[in-house]
């Protein structure tokens, strides 16, 4: 469907998820949409495993793998979002007016940065503000990292030594120029006061890139700011022994159960608001 966002339709014959209604007579075009944003330097072969988790459950999926370099260059992300990504999502909603909603599933800062900018555009850009009402839930997997040093460690792992040196030596001055108050803006968007829908935070005590203390900053913001009046919309799954963005591979059963709990909470939230 597009080279920017890879489209994976729901598994043929799969049940249509029920996120917003108690009715059992849901139509095909009402299937919810998942926006899957991978970690920095992620590859489709790995992100597809997460897409399959959703398509098997009856969701249509758009997926994107951020490159290592674009993760450190905010102007490129904003251009991608405004000129390509959100127009694609806007077109999808136009073609599927009965779509029950959108769930975001993002990984590490690579996916988190895109999520942050997309939420910002949904809230502030008149062209895309109507999409915000379709937001039903968010999965944060292995994020956020709120320091440049952690970002450099991730660049070393995802891109290898040459990419790491390129980022550190050549791009570091640009990063300082363009990042500005990036980290504060990042936190504000992840925990925006209008993001009142179920959030699932998945992280690990054994993550050497996004450490527990970094995740706890986001958890505190979600609990005491975004979802302060709706504490039941917050869910978390903390593992003891899975590496960065490897929680599904290490704990497949528990990971799937966490996804199902999020979907159940989305349904509960929708029916309570009805």
TrEMBL record:
Q: How does it sit in the membrane?
A: Single-pass membrane protein
Give me the segments passing through the membrane.
161-180
Q: Where in the cell is it found?
A: Nucleus outer membrane
Q: What stretch or stretches form a coiled coil here? A: none
- Give the UniProt keywords, A-Z: Membrane, Nucleus, Transmembrane, Transmembrane helix
Question: Residues of the signal sequence?
Answer: none
The record's section on Gene3D superfamilies has: alpha/beta hydrolase
One GO term of the cellular component aspect?
nuclear outer membrane
What is the similarity comment for this entry? Belongs to the TMEM53 family.
What is the protein's name according to its record?
Putative transmembrane protein
What organism is recorded for this protein? Heterostelium pallidum (strain ATCC 26659 / Pp 5 / PN500) (Cellular slime mold)
């Amino acid at each position: 469907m597009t080279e920017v966002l890879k489209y994976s339709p729901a598994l043929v014959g799969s049940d249509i998820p029920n996120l917003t209604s108690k009715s059992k007579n849901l139509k095909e075009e009402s299937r919810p949409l998942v926006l899957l944003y991978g970690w920095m330097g992620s590859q489709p072969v790995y992100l597809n495993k997460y897409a399959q988790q959703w398509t098997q459950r009856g969701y249509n999926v758009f997926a994107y793998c951020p490159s290592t370099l674009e993760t450190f260059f905010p102007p490129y992300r904003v251009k991608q979002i405004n000129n390509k990504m959100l127009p694609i999502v806007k077109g999808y909603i136009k073609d599927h007016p009965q779509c029950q909603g959108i769930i975001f599933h993002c990984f590490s800062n690579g996916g988190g940065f895109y999520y942050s900018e997309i939420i910002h555009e949904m809230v502030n850009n008149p062209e895309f503000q109507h999409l915000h009402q379709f937001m039903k839930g968010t999965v944060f997997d292995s994020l956020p990292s709120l320091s440049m040093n952690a970002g450099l460690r991730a660049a070393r792992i995802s891109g290898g030594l040459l990419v790491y040196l390129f980022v550190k030596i050549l791009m570091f001055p640009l990063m300082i120029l363009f990042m500005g108050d990036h980290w504060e803006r990042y936190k504000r968007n992840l925990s925006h006061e209008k993001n009142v829908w179920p959030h699932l935070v998945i992280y690990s005590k054994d993550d050497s890139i996004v450490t527990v203390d970094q995740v706890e900053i986001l958890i505190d913001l979600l609990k005491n700011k975004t979802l302060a009046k709706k504490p039941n919309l917050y869910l978390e799954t903390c593992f003891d022994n899975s590496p960065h963005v490897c929680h599904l591979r290490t704990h497949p059963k528990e990971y799937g159960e966490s996804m199902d709990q999020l979907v159940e909470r989305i349904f509960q939230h929708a029916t309570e608001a009805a």
